[in-house]
């Protein structure tokens, strides 16, 4: 069966102005997301990974227009959300939901859980008013809580339970796409696994599509179908989960993966330690943004921006933005540590 496009991001840029001087003029920009494109198909889980400051969360927020994108298109079922008026955008709000790292921060502590859930339904006109309370209780059961807990306040729940409330709230308006922004990062490992399993079960039950944003490659490996790796506002590699973990091509992806511990004590993996820190997104490096830290960088890398491409050794749909994929793979190019 042909895959159906659900979300198509094209040339998305998100720049934040930096004000300065006596008159408070814009003196520069933080280029948090700089010209990225990707597609998400119905029913799949796509993850965006990268270090803090790479632009992954900003991408999620720009898709939902929690920040107004500076440039680019965000097409949801063929409709460009970025071009809609605020009023027209409201019609799509229920289709695209977000679960945050700390749902506690996004839930009014003075509201009961029932009121949090029915409020979302009320705003989006989901169900007649007299049926919303019952639906809220059903949703609590769906996410593994108990109906009588609807009358409790958020502070009466543990971190994992609060995340379940965040999920119930997202589900309450029958969304199609859920953006999970570091949704399990704050939880203990065992609770993380429970919430990830719950998200997978709900995906099957409600035919959901997820955009998972995380710095944690272990979590991403568990949940994703495809993975996007970002570095300093750009996509450097995109691939299905197996290709990315078994056959990474971009030197940055290789460095990220080398940092994951292997549970087998007999297997040894060489850890690639990158030099320096991530440069500032205010004045990112020219050419390939990774050149200041890349062990294979040449003068060409300082000037020419590498485009995402599929080399002959890569599967269809696997792309990396590096000038020297073939040379690094053949060993012709050696790292200059
Ligand atoms: Fe490294 Fe150059 Fe490839 Fe960028 S283009 S990843 S700097 S080798």
UniProtKB/TrEMBL annotation:
TM ranges: none
Signal peptide positions on this chain: none
Pfam families referenced in this protein's UniProt entry, alphabetically: ABC_tran, oligo_HPY
Key words of the record: ATP-binding, Nucleotide-binding, Transport
Gene Ontology molecular function: any one: ATP binding
UniProt entry tagged with the keyword Nucleotide-binding: yes
Tagged with keyword Acyltransferase: no
Alphabetized Gene3D superfamilies for the sequence: P-loop containing nucleotide triphosphate hydrolases
Cited PROSITE patterns: ABC_TRANSPORTER_1 (PS00211), ABC_TRANSPORTER_2 (PS50893)
InterPro entries the record matches: AAA+_ATPase (IPR003593), ABC_transp_ATP-bind (IPR050319), ABC_transporter-like_ATP-bd (IPR003439), ABC_transporter-like_CS (IPR017871), Oligopep_ABC_C (IPR013563), P-loop_NTPase (IPR027417)
ABC transporter domain ranges (all copies): 7-257
Tree of life domain: Bacteria
Annotated family: Belongs to the ABC transporter superfamily.
This protein's name: Peptide/nickel transport system ATP-binding protein/oligopeptide transport system ATP-binding protein
Organism, as annotated: Planomicrobium stackebrandtii
